């Protein structure tokens, strides 16, 4: 039965594979027989195993042997213990620690900031204030700002995003429809390639036969070439021997010349080495003569080198102590100044921290309101996209359903044509030439039908592309005209505001000129009257002196 099991399994698999083919009732019957045979074999094996187990239990007893080796720990148990120990040891070293359940904080965390953070945030606030001041100044000078343009720009960006989403969904619909068309075209190409493959196989067989003849001819030519090359190889060996002999003679001559040159160089080196040894002996003899080099040191005596500002060692120590005391005093003064600066800086940082905390609270409130508005707008956009997507899916389903219906009708028509063709073939089976002519006619009819379908699909696709291109061109033209009209309106408004500003500026300048001129005239008249009345001086004493002579 064990020997029959693989063959029975193969028979069952083969029978199951053949049972799916049309008209395979006998194969299905054989597959059922094979499965029954497999079940019987498995049942026999199970019974034999139970009998053997009962026989062994009856022979050796129900408890069996109590061996000491059974109490030993096998390798698997030791490995399991080692694995548990390693897991406990490496639990703290893992890159994926156990994450506890998130508990949201009950109150806001108090963030402690340092001086660098305060200064950095204050610098950012000052930069924003400078930008706002520049914006206000530009608005004051130019009498307009870019807020309206930015609103229009954001609106156009949102509109472009919606148009892009619609275009993507439309492209998805087109791609799904194109997929269905591609599947049909692929099936037609498979049939066409089958015919071409048969023709190519015949051509390949003919090419292989021609290639075999050419290879045989090339083999004969190569054999002749090898024979001639072997004859030329002997002549090359003789020429190599002659060249090797000439090279050996030349090398021997060069070796003799090098030996003579080496001998001459060795003699010259010996003479130079002897001369250097003599010089070294003379220098060593001169160095052995003793020289008196000692002078007693006096700290109160000057160096007496004839230089300006010479001082003795003791005077230098006194000057050094004075300089060190002065340096210590300077350090103490510097520390006091630094402490004052530090206290002043701490007060400034505390004031800045309070201001930044207020600004931060106000910014948090504004960001929350802005985030709520953005989230609401995002939800509205998602809802609109979802409705549009559902609409596109419904359109795609309708189009695919219609296309499947058309395909089903075409398949029915093709089946009807094939049935008619098969009936005609049965009537024309006696005449081989007529059958062959009919076959060619059917093939040509199929190719013509395939060409018509391909041409129709190509024309439909080209017409659709042309319509899409014309629509896109019209949309771009409309957008350009709208942009031009908006730009022209904006230019007209700006020019109008500029003209009004220029007129107001001219009136203001005229008023300033008139006021300046009148002030200058009145000042000049006042100076003239005072000069006539008091002279060059206008103090109180000059007035008394002027009135005294008049009274006299």
Query: What structural class results from the helix and strand content?
Result: mainly alpha
The H-and-E topology, N to C, reads as HHHHHHHH
* Rg from alpha-carbon coordinates: 57 Å
The DSSP helix count reads 8
* Stretches with pLDDT under 50, minimum 5 residues: 1-24, 542-552
Estimate the strand proportion. Answer: under 5%
Task: Describe the largest sheet.
Answer: none
Number of beta-strand segments = 0
Mean pLDDT: 78
- Tell me roughly what share of residues is in helical segments: over 70%
What does this structure look like?
By secondary structure, this protein is mainly α. 84% of the residues lie in helices and 0% in strands. The protein has helices at residues 4-19, 25-60, 75-89, 115-142, 147-287, 313-427, 432-534, 540-551. The radius of gyration is 57 Å and the shape is extended.
Can I get a quick summary?
With 552 residues, this protein is mainly alpha-helical.
Helix and strand topology:
Blueprint (H helix, E strand, L loop, with lengths): L3 H16 L5 H36 L14 H15 L25 H28 L4 H141 L25 H115 L4 H103 L5 H12 L1
């Amino acid at each position: 039965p064990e020997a029959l099991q693989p063959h029975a399994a193969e028979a069952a698999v083969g029978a199951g594979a053949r049972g799916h083919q049309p008209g395979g009732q006998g194969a299905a019957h054989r597959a059922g027989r094979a499965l029954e045979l497999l079940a019987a074999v498995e049942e026999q094996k199970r019974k034999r195993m139970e009998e053997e187990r009962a026989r062994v239990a009856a022979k050796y007893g129900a408890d069996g042997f109590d061996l000491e080796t059974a109490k030993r720990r096998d390798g698997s148990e030791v490995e399991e213990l080692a694995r548990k120990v390693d897991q406990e040891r490496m639990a703290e070293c893992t890159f994926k620690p156990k994450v506890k359940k998130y508990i949201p904080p009950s109150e806001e965390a108090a963030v402690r900031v340092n001086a660098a953070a305060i200064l950095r945030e204050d610098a950012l606030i000052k930069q924003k204030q400078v930008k706002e001041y520049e914006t206000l100044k530009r608005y004051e000078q130019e009498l307009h700002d870019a807020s309206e343009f930015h609103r229009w720009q954001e609106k156009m960006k949102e509109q472009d995003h919606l148009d892009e989403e619609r275009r993507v969904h439309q492209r998805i619909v087109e791609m799904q429809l194109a997929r269905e068309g591609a599947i049909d075209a692929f099936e037609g190409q498979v049939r066409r390639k089958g015919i071409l493959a048969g023709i190519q196989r015949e051509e390949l067989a003919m090419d292989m036969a021609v290639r075999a003849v050419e290879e045989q001819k090339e083999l004969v030519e190569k054999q002749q070439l090898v024979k001639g090359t072997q004859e030329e190889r002997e002549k090359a060996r003789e020429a190599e021997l002659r060249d090797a002999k000439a090279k050996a003679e030349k090398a021997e001559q060069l070796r003799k010349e090098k030996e003579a040159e080496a001998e001459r160089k060795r003699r010259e080196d010996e003479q130079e080495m002897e001369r250097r040894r003599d010089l070294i002996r003379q220098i060593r003899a001169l160095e052995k003569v003793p020289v008196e080099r000692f002078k007693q040191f006096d700290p109160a005596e000057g160096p007496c080198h004839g230089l300006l500002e010479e001082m003795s060692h003791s005077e230098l120590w006194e000057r050094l102590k004075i300089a060190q005391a002065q340096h210590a005093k300077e350090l103490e003064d510097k520390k006091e100044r630094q402490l004052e600066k530090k206290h002043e800086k701490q007060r400034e940082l505390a004031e800045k921290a309070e201001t930044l905390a207020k600004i931060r609270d106000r910014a948090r409130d504004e960001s929350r309101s802005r985030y709520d508005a953005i989230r609401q707008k995002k939800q509205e956009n998602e809802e609109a996209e979802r409705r549009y997507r559902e609409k596109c899916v419904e359109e795609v389903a309708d189009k695919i359903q219609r296309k499947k219906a058309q395909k089903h009708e075409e398949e029915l028509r093709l089946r009807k044509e094939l049935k008619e063709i098969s009936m005609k073939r049965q009537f024309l089976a006696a005449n081989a030439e007529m059958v062959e002519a009919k076959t060619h006619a059917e093939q040509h009819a199929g190719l013509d039908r395939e060409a018509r379908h391909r041409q129709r699909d190509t024309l439909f696709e080209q017409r659709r592309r042309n319509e899409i291109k014309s629509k896109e061109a019209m949309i771009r033209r409309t957008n350009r005209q709208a942009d031009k009209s908006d730009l022209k309106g904006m230019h007209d408004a700006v020019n109008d505001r500029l003209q009004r500003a220029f007129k107001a500026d001219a009136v203001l300048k005229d008023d300033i000129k008139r006021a300046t001129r009148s002030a200058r005239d009145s000042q000049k008249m006042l100076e003239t009257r005072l000069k006539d009345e008091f002279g060059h001086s206008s103090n109180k004493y000059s007035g008394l002196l002027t009135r005294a002579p008049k009274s006299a």
